[in-house]
Every structure is written in C-alpha cells, then in structure tokens.
Amino acid sequence: MEINLKNNLPLDILFLIRIKANEFKSEGVQEINANDIKEYLYQIKWKNTDALSMCDIIDDIMSLRFSEVFDYLKLKVIKEASTLNLDDFSELITK
After folding, report:
1. Which residue segment(s) compose the domain that 56 sits in?
2. Residues 6+ apart with CB under 8 A from 72
3. CA 7, CA 71: separation in Å to the nearest integer?
4. With 80 as the cut, is the pLDDT of residue 95 above it?
5. Are 32 and 21 in contact (CB under 8 A)?
6. pTM here?
7. In terms of pLDDT, which residue wins out, 80 or 17?
8. Nearest one of 8, 11, 10, 25 to 69, comparing CA atoms
9. Is 49 helix (H, G, I), strand (E, B) or coil?
10. pLDDT tens column, 1-12
11. Which Pfam families did the record assign (predicted)?
C-alpha cells in the first residue's frame, strides 16, 4: 500500500511516531518529541519523495536513531541563529 506523503499521514503512522518519541524518552532523551521526528522525516528523510509504501515508512520510523533527529535540530537552530543579530543575544551575553 502506497502512502502519499503530501497528504496527512494515517493515524496509525502518527501513533507510531509518538511511540518512537516515547522510546527516546525512555532512553533519557526528553528533548525530542513526535513533532520533531515528523519534521525530520519530512525535511530530511522524505524530502524528495511523494509516496512510500507503508513498509518503508514503518522501517524509516522504527530504524530512526535519536542522534539523527538531534543533528537535524542542531543544524536547524544554527541556521535560525545565523539570521539573528548580536542584539538578539544580549540577554545571554550580559549574564
């Protein structure tokens, strides 16, 4: 069965993403949530893909390591910070 990634994901896939986030939490990684995982999948793993089989989607989610999502989030923060100016960091600098 092919899943169109341009549409909303089926509820069972969204549930599987939440399970993966809970797995990360049980491993002590509190900062990565289901939305972070979903964003990583769409922005990195499935970026140039319109549709995938259900098996491939499940495999992508279940084989996901927290370090992959963490590296993505780290780069995202760096990119966002590069658009700011020094005044935006004044609160951090003065402490």
Report:
1. 2-93
2. 39, 40, 43, 44
3. 26
4. no
5. yes
6. 0.82
7. 17
8. 25
9. coil
10. 899 998 889 999
11. Post_transc_reg
Encode 54-78: b = buried (16+ Cβ within 10 Å), e = exposed: eeebeeebeebebeebbebeeeeee
3-state helix, strand, coil in the chain (%, to 5): 65, 5, 30
Q: Quick one: which of 15, 14, 68 has its CA closest to 43?
A: 68
DSSP state of 19: H
| CA 44/CA 25 separation, integer angstroms | 22
Residues 43-68: tens digit of each pLDDT: 999 999 999 999 999 999 999 999 99
The pLDDT assigned to 90 comes to 61
Sign, CA dihedral 13-18-22-25, equals positive
